[in-house]
Amino acid sequence: MEPFKAHAGVVVPFDQPDVNTDLIVPAQTLKRIERTGYGQFLFYSKRFLPDGKPNPEFVLNKPQYRDGTILVAGRNFGCGSSREHAPWALQDYGFKVIVAPSFADIFAENAAQNGLLTVVLPEARVRQIMDAAGTREGYQLTVDLEAQTVTDGFGRRDKFEIDAFKKHCLLNGLDAIGLTLQHEREITRFEATRPAWMPRVSA
């Protein structure tokens, strides 16, 4: 997991509330055993027509958004099943930040565990950002996790809240394994003092 400090990128407006995880990455594509490779299936039912060709009307297929790295969506983003593949697909496609008025709790936790930042802003402000991204080609935001701010190219700056522990993990690139390895010396010392008769796990 890579540390997240700040990111500036083109905004992709996905004007839809209640985007569920099956829409983000459909169940029939969950056949890989790796975390990578899911970007090709992101929003598959919307990105592609029944014949497999790209849907020219879908936002990700429009030229001005193909290099977008900040997705701005409606409320309750990531609802539905708890599949961790959803943040995997978003990251593998190239998104670094998701901005919305609210997120499903499990999705937000899965995203943080994988280094994908979710930012909650007021619904009215999210609407303004979507409108700007829809009318101004190349519209960008700068998201600074350390300062907890979102800034656009016109000087508008918004503060956002984030759990202190989640912020610490994102800033330092720590997932559950990384957090455990911070205590490697203590774990090694404990293992060395365990009685010989107790079971051990060999590498």
Automatic annotation (TrEMBL):
Domain (Aconitase A/isopropylmalate dehydratase small subunit swivel) ranges? 1-123
Q: Which reaction(s) does the protein catalyse, per the Swiss-Prot or TrEMBL entry?
A: (2R,3S)-3-isopropylmalate = (2S)-2-isopropylmalate
Report the EC number(s), separated by commas if there are several. 4.2.1.33
UniProt-listed GO biological process terms: L-leucine biosynthetic process
Q: Which UniProt keywords apply?
A: Amino-acid biosynthesis, Branched-chain amino acid biosynthesis, Leucine biosynthesis, Lyase
List, alphabetically, the CDD domains matched.
Answer: IPMI_Swivel (cd01577)
Q: Which top-level enzyme class is recorded in the Swiss-Prot or TrEMBL entry?
A: lyase
Gene Ontology cellular component list: 3-isopropylmalate dehydratase complex
Looking at the keywords, is Amino-acid biosynthesis present? yes
Q: What is a single molecular function from GO for this protein? A: 3-isopropylmalate dehydratase activity
Q: In which pathway does it act?
A: Amino-acid biosynthesis; L-leucine biosynthesis; L-leucine from 3-methyl-2-oxobutanoate: step 2/4
**One Pfam family per UniProt:** Aconitase_C
> What is the protein's quaternary organization?
Heterodimer of LeuC and LeuD.
| Similarity section | Belongs to the LeuD family. LeuD type 1 subfamily.
HAMAP family assigned to the protein according to its UniProt record, in alphabetical order: LeuD_type1
Summarizing the function annotation, the protein's role is: Catalyzes the isomerization between 2-isopropylmalate and 3-isopropylmalate, via the formation of 2-isopropylmaleate.
NCBIfam families associated with the record: leuD, PRK01641.1
Q: Which PANTHER family does this entry report, sorted A to Z?
A: 3-ISOPROPYLMALATE DEHYDRATASE SMALL SUBUNIT (PTHR43345:SF5), 3-ISOPROPYLMALATE DEHYDRATASE SMALL SUBUNIT 2-RELATED-RELATED (PTHR43345)
State what protein this is by name.
Answer: 3-isopropylmalate dehydratase small subunit
Q: Which organism is it from?
A: Candidatus Segetimicrobium genomatis
The major lineage groups are: Bacteria, Bacillati, Candidatus Sysuimicrobiota, Candidatus Sysuimicrobiia, Candidatus Sysuimicrobiales
Gene symbol? Answer: leuD
